[in-house]
């Protein structure tokens, strides 16, 4: 031993022991970090899925929809509508998220009369349109829907119209 009681040279064995200790600490720290990130990602994804489910189940009554979106809705006195995320809204992949909307609109009588005469409406044959579960309570039984290709081409939504009830059902897609 040279001066102060320390070995004069580092042996191969002591160097390997020190290097393996450092490597072990690095691997443990990295593994714990990766586990923490994974848990954080899963928690964020669960929160996102819960938020999307709450958004989809909410029935809204605000006046978001205009004649530009759904021609002929006018100054409607009542509306109920919902949003649906048909693609996985919680994805981290870049790109647009499609949103689908469906609404049931009670039209003012004058707007219903104008809508009935502005477009050519034909009775729906076969199955009635699918009304989303949150909106079914706003569509009376026995509604006889009518369709108009001209109406659908004029706006951003597909529409079904029951003129005798002043009722309009629409579905729109927003990307």
Biggest sheet strand line-up? 1-2-6-5
Report the span from N to C terminus: 77 Å
Largest sheet: 4 strands, antiparallel
The helix/strand series, from N terminus to C terminus, equals HEEHEEHEE
Class by helix and strand content? Answer: alpha+beta
Count the domains.
2
Report the mean per-residue pLDDT as an integer.
82
List low-pLDDT spans.
none
Can you lay out the helices and strands and say which pair or pack?
Layout: H1 12-57, E1 78-84, E2 99-106, H2 109-118, E3 122-123, E4 146-147, H3 149-154, E5 157-162, E6 167-174
Antiparallel strand pairs: 1-2, 2-6, 3-4, 5-6
Explain what you see.
The protein is α+β, with helices and mostly antiparallel strands and 175 residues long. It folds into 2 domains: 10-57; 58-174, no CATH class. The chain has helices spanning 12-57, 109-118, 149-154; strands spanning 78-84, 99-106, 122-123, 146-147, 157-162, 167-174. The protein has a 4-stranded antiparallel β-sheet with strand order 1-2-6-5. Strand 5 and strand 6 (167-174) form a beta hairpin. The protein is rod-shaped, with a radius of gyration of 31 Å. It starts with 11 loop residues before the first helix and ends with a strand. 18% of the residues are buried. Keywords: Membrane, Transmembrane, Transmembrane helix. The chain crosses the membrane at residues 15-37.
């Amino acid at each position: 031993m040279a001066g102060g009681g320390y070995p004069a040279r580092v042996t191969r064995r002591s160097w390997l022991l020190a290097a393996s200790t450092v490597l072990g600490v690095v691997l443990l720290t990295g593994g714990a970090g990766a586990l923490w990130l994974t848990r954080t990602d899963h928690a964020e994804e669960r929160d996102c899925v819960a938020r999307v489910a709450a958004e989809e189940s909410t029935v809204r009554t605000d006046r978001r929809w205009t004649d530009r979106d759904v021609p002929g809705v006018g100054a409607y006195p009542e509306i109920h509508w919902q949003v649906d995320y048909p693609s996985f809204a919680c994805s981290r992949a870049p790109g647009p998220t499609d949103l689908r909307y469906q609404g049931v609109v009670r039209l003012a009588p004058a707007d219903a009369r104008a809508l009935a005469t502005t477009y050519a409406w034909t009775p729906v044959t076969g199955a009635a349109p699918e009304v989303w579960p949150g909106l079914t309570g706003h569509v009376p039984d026995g509604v006889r829907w009518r369709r108009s290709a001209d109406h659908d081409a004029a706006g951003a939504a597909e529409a079904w119209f029951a003129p005798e009830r002043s009722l309009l059902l629409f579905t729109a897609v927003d990307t």
